[in-house]
Structures are given as structure tokens and as C-alpha cells.
């Protein structure tokens, strides 16, 4: 006795289950893409928040009745309110010159969030500058 399979039935059996495999492969690719976009958004959010806090701290420290240490503390407070204590650990403020004009610079060293909120320490450095006010 000889068994034969018709061409239509044979083709149908070979394609059976391929939709599941295609779905898994495409879903994995799309999930990776969306997670990467989300992670990039998180990293940009952290960077922009740190830049804004450093700039605000520099402006605060450059006021006539303030010191750079006041600006650094203001920066720490803003970072803690916006992000987390982990990002406010390494903040420094100094006097300096920008094109011969006295200024206050606030520098923040923080980790760059690469996997969720985790990442290498001190991988990101942001600075804020403000011209120092001179009392009349």
C-alpha cells in the first residue's frame, strides 16, 4: 500500500505553526525597539533635569547675598525633589571667570541610567553657569 499526500495538504502542513514563530520574532524585535526608545527617553530626562538643577543652583549661588556653597545645596535639593538622592551625591560649586566676568559654576557628576535607573557611576557630568551679581 502506498501513501500519497496531495500537494495542497502537504503545503498546509509545512506552514502550520509559522504564524506563531513569526509573531514571536517580530514581537521580540518590537519590544527591544520600544524598550530602547524608553531608555533613551529616561536618560534624556535625567540629563535635562540635572542641567536645569545645576543652572538654577548656579543662579542661586550667584546672587549678591549668596555663596557658591548655597548654590550647590540648592542644586542638591532640586535634584532630590525631581529625581532621587542617588543623583545628588556629587555636586560642587566654584567661583570662576567666563570671558573675564566673575561667575559661579555648579558641576554635577551622576550616573548615566543605562538599564532602568542603573548605570555606571560618574558617567555624566553637567554644568550650570551664572554671572555673579556684584552688590551696588
Features:
rod-shaped; 50% helix; 136 residues; alpha+beta; three-stranded antiparallel beta sheet; single chain
Give a brief description:
By secondary structure, the chain is of the alpha+beta class.
pLDDT under 50 segments (min length 5)? none
- Principal-axes geometry comes out as rod-shaped
The number of distinct helices, counting runs of at least 4 residues, comes to 3
What is the domain total for the residues?
1
Number of strands: 3
Explain this structure:
This protein has 136 residues and is of the alpha+beta class. It has one domain. The protein is built from three helices and three strands, in the order αααβββ. It has helices at residues 7-15, 18-61, 68-82; strands spanning 90-98, 101-110, 124-131. Strands 1-2-3 form a three-stranded antiparallel beta sheet. The N and C termini lie far apart (111 Å). The mean pLDDT is 86.
List the helices and strands and how they pair.
Elements: H1 7-15, H2 18-61, H3 68-82, E1 90-98, E2 101-110, E3 124-131
Antiparallel strand pairs: 1-2, 2-3
Helix pairs in contact: 2-3
Amino acid at each position: 500500500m502506498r501513501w500519497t499526500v496531495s500537494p495542497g495538504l502537504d503545503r498546509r502542513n509545512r506552514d502550520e505553526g509559522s504564524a506563531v514563530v513569526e509573531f514571536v520574532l517580530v514581537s521580540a524585535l518590537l519590544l527591544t525597539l520600544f524598550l530602547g526608545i524608553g531608555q533613551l527617553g529616561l536618560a534624556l530626562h535625567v540629563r535635562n533635569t540635572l542641567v536645569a538643577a545645576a543652572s538654577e543652583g548656579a543662579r542661586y549661588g550667584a546672587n549678591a547675598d549668596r555663596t557658591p556653597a548655597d548654590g550647590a545645596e540648592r542644586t542638591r535639593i532640586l535634584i532630590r525633589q525631581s529625581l532621587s538622592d542617588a543623583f545628588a551625591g556629587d555636586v560642587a560649586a566654584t567661583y570662576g571667570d567666563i570671558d573675564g566676568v566673575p561667575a559661579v559654576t555648579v558641576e554635577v557628576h551622576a550616573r548615566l541610567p543605562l538599564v532602568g535607573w542603573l548605570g555606571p557611576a560618574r558617567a555624566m557630568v553637567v554644568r550650570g553657569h551664572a554671572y555673579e551679581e556684584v552688590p551696588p
